[in-house]
Design goal:
The structure is a homodimer. Chain A is of the alpha+beta class. The radius of gyration of chain A is 25 Å and the shape is globular. In chain A, helix 1 packs antiparallel against helix 16. Helices cover 35% and strands 19% of the residues of chain A. In chain A, a hairpin with a 2-residue loop joins strand 3 and strand 4. The N and C termini of chain A lie far apart (69 Å). At the A-B interface, helix 12, helix 15, strand 13 and strand 19 of A face helix 12, helix 15, strand 13 and strand 19 of B.
C-alpha cells in the first residue's frame, strides 16, 4: 500500500468564478477535452493521426499493429488525463471519470512486469530501452505519467494511476543513480524532475526526492554520457549539442539559459522545487541568475521564449526576431511553472508579472477561442507569403491547426487552464500572497482554521478587484497584494477606507489586521494603455512600439488594417483609445502609412514618400488568427 | 582546322587608364591571379584545399589519387584561365602565358577519347556520366571550358584550348538534342548556353548556335526529365524543386524569376544572346518581363540578388531581408552579364544603371581590397553574434575568407574585373552607346575606319567625364551617353560649348556631328548623396534610409560607429557630408542613438527612451569588412 501524506495541495482549494477564466475553463472542459480525446483516438477528420491510445492498446496486447507517432507519443495521453482530472474539479462528470479509469486500466496492462511503461520502446524498439537519452524521451514520458497520476489522485483521491507510476519509479530508481551498479545518466528532455517532486509531496517517499536531486546534480557532469551514447553527432540537423539538453555544464555552473526552451523550463522548475525543499541556497542563486538571463535578455514581450526554430531553442542575448520566433506554447507554459516555483522560493513580483504576461499572451495564443485549434509556434509577426516561400520561416504556422504530429502543446494548455487556480496564491506561515487577480473563491488553512478569500473582478478588462474575507474565526495575519510593475499608481481600501500602504521591495503591498467576517479589501490598478519600447539591444524592435494594457499585449491583424501591416507608423504623440466590440477588448489609435501607389512599380527611390493618415485597430495578441486565417499579424509597430 | 570568324570582340578594344579601375586590374593581375593559382594548387595555408589542378593531373594520368572537391571543381580552373587570359591584355606576361599553356596541355590530356572532359566523373564516377543533371554540373563545366577557350583565343589568338572545347562540344552535340537518337535533356545549372553563344561568335559554326537554342527551348518542358532522373526528391535539404533549375515551365512561359539566382542569371544571359542573334521577339518580351521582376521586385539596393540561403535562391516579390540575404557575388556578376546582353538587345539605361549598381556594390564587395580574401554571400547587414548563434544565419560569413570549399566566386570576380572594358560600350550601325564611365582608351571601327574614344574621369569620385575623340578621318555618327536615373540634372559640352540635349526615352542623350580630331565632349553628372528609401512592400526597410552617391551605396561599420548599429537613427532633415579619408570616400551625417545604459538591464519599458546625438560615418559598401573582421555592418538605417 502507498504511504500517502499531503504536504501541499491547492488543486481543490480554488473555485474560479470569473467572466474571463470561467469561460475558458468551460471551453476546455466541455469542448477541448472531449475534442482532444477524439484526437488521441484518431477521430478528428483532417488532423494528423495521433494513434496514441491505439499505441497503448497494442502495447497492452488488446490490439495488434505497429506503433505510430513520436517516441514521446504516450505523454499526450498522460497530459490529457491530467487536464481531464482538473476539469473534474470544475465539472464533476462520472462518464469522464469512467473514461479516465478505463484508460488507466489500459496503461496498467501496458506496464511491463518490471514496471517499465513506454509504448514506443515496448512496441517498436523492444531491445533498445534506455539507449537514446537525447531523443528517446522515456524519462520524459515517465514524468508525465507521474504528473497525471498525482493530479488524478489529488482530484479524485483514487490511487489507481499513482500505483502504476510508483511502480515505474521504483524500477527507474533501481536502474539509475549515484549508487554502485546503477547507470549514471539523466534525461535528455527534463520533466521527471518536477514530476518526482509532485510525487514526493503526495507520497512523502524520500526516494522520490533523492532521485530528483540525483537527476539534477548529475546533469552536465563531464565527460558527458550523452556524447558517448550519441550516434547523431555530426548530423547537423539532428544533433543539437550538449547545451540543447542543458548538459554543457553542471547545473550549478550554468549562468545563462541554453538550448531547447521547454527542456530548460522543466529543468529550472525541478531545480526550484529542490531549492525550496532542501533550502539549497546555491541552487537558488543559480536560478535567480538564470531567471534574469531569460526574462531580461531572452523573452518576447508576450512571455514567449525560444527565438529559433532549429532546435526550438534559446539563442544569444537580445536575439528576439519577431517573424521567425519559435516561442512554443509549451515553453511559455513551462515559464509559468518555473515562475510559480520561484514565487514559492521568494516572493517577488518579477516572477508573478512574467507568469501573468505569459498566461495572457504567449500561452493563451496557443489555443483558438473555440478551444479546438492550436498554435505550436507563437511569433510576434506573421507574413503568410514569407511563411510559404522562406525556408527559415517553415516552422511558423499562419493558421491555427486541428492537431500536430508532435502534439505536446494542445494537452499542455488544457491542463494549464483547468488548473489555473493553483497559480493565484502562495502562502507562508503568517502570510497569504496574492499573485493573480481572477474572480474566485479560495479556502486557506490559517492556524488550523478555515480562511476564505473571494475575489470579485473583471480584471484585466478593468483593474478593480474586490476581496471578501471570510475567516472561520477572527485572525491576525498578513495579506500581500501584488502591484504589477506596469502599475505606477494604485489605490487600496480596507472596508472602504483608503490605506496608504507603500510598495514593499518585493513589489507587493502588505495588509495586516485582525481579519473578521465581512472585511473587504478593494484594490484598484489603473489599466492604462502603454506604449512599450524594447531595450535597443533588441535589434528587431528599435524604433518600434508595442501596445500593452495591464498584462495584455495587443497586435494588429490584416482583417482590421489591410495587408502590409509593417507599413503602419504610430506618431509619437498619438494615444490609443480603448474600444469594446463584440466582447473583444480592442484598441484604436491614429497612424499613418506610406502611399504604395506612388512607387509605380519601382523598388527604390530618393523621393520623400507620401504618408496618409489611417485608423489603426489592435486586438489582444492571444486572439490573433481566430478570424480570417493565413493573414498578416504584427505586434511591434514603427513609431514616427 | 577550326573555321574562325570573329563577329564581335571588344576584349582587346579597350585599355583601362583609371584611378579606380586601373588599381583594381593591377590588384587582380598581380596579386589575385597568382594567389588563386596557388589556391587551385592547394598552396594557401589555412584555406580549404581546392585540389582542382590535382584533379586534372589525376584524370590525365599524371598523378594518382582520388578526386577531391565539388563535382564542378573543374570550373574553377577554367575561370582562372579566363581571368588570367584577360589579365594578359593589361599585363603581357610570358611566364603566365606559359603557365596557362601548360594547364591547357593538362586539360588536353584529361580529355577522353570521345571528347568528354570532367575530372569528377572521369576520376570519381566513371560509370555515372550524364546521370545527374540537377547537381552533376557536367554541362556547366563544359560551359566554363568554352568561355576560357574563347577568352584565351581572343586575347592571344592561340586556339589550343578552343580546339579542346570544340571537340567536347561536338561530343555534347552528338549526345543531346531534338534529333532522334539523342537524349532530350538540358543542364541543371545553366552556363553552357551563354558559352555556346560566345563560341559561335568566334567559330561561326551554326551547330553551336543551334545547340544553344535547343537547350533554351527544351528547358522546362513537361513532364520534366529532371523529376524522372532525380533520386533526391523528398529530401528537403537536397532537392529544391523544378523552379530551382528554372525548369518549372518552358522559358517562354516564365513570368517571374525563380530558383537559384546564379543559374537564373546565366540562363537569362543565354536567352538574351539568342534573342539578339535570332531576332526572337517573343524571347525578348519574356526577358523584359523577367528583368522587371528581378530588378523591381527582387533586387537589393546593392545589385545583390537571391534573398535566401537555402537553395541560394530567389523567393517571393519584395522579400529582401538584409541580415539573411544571400546575394551571392556570382549572382551579381551574372546580373551584369544579363544586363550587358539586354543593352545589346535594346538600349535602355535601366540595364546599364543596374549593371553599374551591381558592379560598384554587390560584385566588388565580394573581394577584399588586397584581392586575396572573399565573400560568397553579401548581406546588407551583419551581426556577428547572430551569425554565430542563429542557424538561419549560417550561410553568412562575417569575415572575408581566403578560399571556399565551393569556390565559384573568387575566379568569377577576377575574370569580371579584368574584362571590365567589355561592359562600357555597345555599338550599332551608326551609333556608339556609352554605358560606363571609366578612364580608358577604346578603339572602334566606324564605317571601316578607326575611331578612338578616350575617357578621362575620376568617376565615381566625381562626376566629370571628358571624352577625347580621335577619328581616323572625320565621320558623322551618333554618340549616346547614359544619364543615370539617379541624375536629375547634368551638363554636356562639345568643344566647351554647352549643348542643350534632351534625355531620350532610353535615358541617354544623343550627340551627333561630324566628329573630327581634337573634338571633346564633357559630361558632368552631379554626384549628390541621396537618401534612398525602399518601396514599402519591402518589409525590412520600412522607415529606413540608405545612403547612395552616384552608383555607390554606403554602409555603416562598427569600426567607425561602435557596436549596435541598428540603434542609430538619421533625422529626416540631416544632410550627409562627403569626407575623403585615406583614399576612401566616406560620408558623415549627424544622427542620434538611444542611450543604452538607461535600461538598467530591463528588456521592456513604457518610458520614452533618451536619445543622444552622434556622428555617423558611412563608407562605401563594397569596402566593408576590410578592416576589423567579425564586426557589425549596416546599410539600411532607421530614419527619425
Amino acid at each position: 500500500m502507498l504511504k500517502v501524506t499531503s504536504q501541499r495541495s491547492t488543486i481543490n482549494q480554488t473555485k474560479i468564478k470569473d467572466d474571463f477564466w470561467s469561460q475558458w475553463i468551460d471551453i476546455i472542459s466541455t469542448k477541448t477535452i472531449p475534442y482532444q480525446w477524439k484526437a488521441l483516438n484518431d477521430e478528428i477528420e483532417g488532423a494528423p493521426p495521433s494513434h496514441s491510445v491505439e499505441n497503448f492498446r497494442i502495447a497492452s496486447g488488446q490490439s495488434s499493429g505497429t506503433f505510430h507517432g513520436m517516441p514521446f507519443q504516450d505523454s499526450d495521453v498522460y497530459k490529457w488525463i491530467e487536464a481531464a482530472s482538473y476539469s473534474l474539479i470544475h465539472y464533476p462528470d462520472q462518464e469522464l471519470e469512467a473514461k479516465i479509469e478505463e484508460l488507466i486500466e489500459l496503461i496498467r496492462q501496458a506496464q511491463q512486469d518490471d514496471g517499465y511503461i513506454n509504448t514506443y520502446y515496448t512496441v517498436a524498439k523492444p531491445n533498445e530501452r534506455w539507449t537514446d537519452f537525447s531523443h528517446g524521451h522515456e524519462l520524459y514520458c515517465a514524468g508525465h505519467l507521474i504528473e497525471a497520476a498525482v493530479a488524478y489522485y489529488e482530484v479524485t483521491n483514487k490511487d489507481t494511476l499513482l500505483a502504476i507510476a510508483n511502480t515505474f519509479v521504483d524500477y527507474i530508481d533501481s536502474m539509475f543513480g549515484i549508487e554502485d551498479g546503477k547507470r549514471k545518466i539523466y534525461p535528455g528532455h527534463e520533466e521527471i524532475e518536477l514530476a518526482l517532486m509532485r510525487l514526493y509531496k503526495v507520497t512523502g517517499n524520500k526516494m522520490h526526492l533523492n532521485l530528483c536531486i540525483y537527476f539534477i546534480n548529475e546533469r552536465g557532469t563531464q565527460p558527458s554520457f550523452l556524447l558517448e551514447e550519441n550516434t547523431l553527432i555530426g548530423e547537423r540537423d539532428r544533433w543539437f549539442g550538449l547545451d540543447y539538453h542543458q548538459a554543457h555544464a553542471p547545473v550549478r555552473e550554468q549562468t545563462t539559459a541554453h538550448g531547447h526552451a521547454v527542456r530548460a523550463m522543466y529543468l529550472y522548475t525541478g531545480m526550484a522545487d529542490i531549492a525550496k525543499e532542501t533550502g539549497d541556497k546555491e541552487l537558488k542563486k543559480v536560478l535567480k541568475r538564470l531567471w534574469n538571463n531569460v526574462t531580461n535578455q531572452k523573452m518576447y514581450l508576450t512571455g514567449g521564449i525560444g527565438s529559433q526554430g532549429h532546435g526550438e531553442r534559446f539563442t544569444t542575448e537580445y536575439d528576439l526576431p519577431n517573424d521567425v520566433a519559435y516561442a512554443e506554447t509549451c515553453a511559455s507554459i513551462g515559464l509559468m511553472f518555473w515562475a510559480m516555483r520561484m514565487l514559492e522560493l521568494e516572493n517577488d513580483r518579477q516572477y508573478a508579472d512574467v507568469m501573468e504576461t505569459a498566461l495572457y499572451n504567449g500561452v493563451l495564443s496557443g489555443i483558438s477561442l473555440e478551444g479546438t485549434k492550436y498554435f505550436y509556434v507563437n511569433p510576434l509577426e506573421v507574413f503568410p507569403s514569407a511563411v510559404e516561400e522562406r525556408f527559415d520561416h517553415k516552422h511558423v504556422e499562419p493558421e491555427r491547426v486541428p492537431w500536430f504530429g508532435c502534439a505536446c502543446c494542445p494537452p499542455n494548455i488544457a491542463r494549464l487552464i483547468t488548473s489555473i487556480g493553483q497559480y493565484m496564491y502562495t502562502t507562508s506561515e503568517n502570510k497569504i500572497n496574492v499573485h493573480l487577480y481572477i474572480g474566485s473563491q479560495t479556502e486557506f488553512n490559517v492556524n488550523g482554521k478555515k480562511f476564505e478569500i473571494i475575489q470579485k473582478t473583471n480584471y484585466p478588462t478593468d483593474g478593480k478587484i474586490l476581496f471578501d474575507i471570510h475567516p472561520e474565526k477572527p485572525t491576525t495575519h498578513e495579506i500581500s497584494l501584488r502591484i504589477p510593475a506596469w502599475c505606477e499608481e494604485f489605490t487600496v481600501k480596507i472596508n472602504n477606507q483608503v490605506i496608504h500602504s507603500p510598495i514593499n521591495d518585493d513589489g507587493y503591498i502588505t495588509l495586516s489586521k485582525e481579519w473578521t467576517e465581512k472585511d473587504t479589501i478593494e484594490l484598484e490598478l489603473p489599466l492604462l494603455v502603454e506604449k512599450i519600447r524594447a531595450n535597443p539591444r533588441v535589434r528587431e524592435n528599435i524604433g518600434k512600439i508595442a501596445l500593452k494594457r495591464g498584462p495584455v499585449v495587443y497586435c494588429l491583424e490584416q482583417e482590421d488594417n489591410g495587408p502590409h501591416l509593417k507599413n503602419i507608423f504610430i506618431p509619437r504623440d498619438e494615444t490609443p483609445i480603448l474600444n469594446s466590440i463584440d466582447n473583444i477588448t480592442s484598441l484604436e489609435i491614429k497612424g499613418v502609412r506610406y502611399e504604395e501607389d506612388q512607387w509605380e512599380g519601382n523598388l527604390y527611390s530618393s523621393h520623400e514618400p507620401v504618408r496618409k493618415p489611417v485608423k489603426v485597430k489592435a486586438v489582444a495578441y492571444h486572439m490573433w488568427g481566430n478570424r480570417s486565417p493565413r493573414e498578416e499579424m504584427l505586434v511591434w509597430m514603427n513609431e514616427i
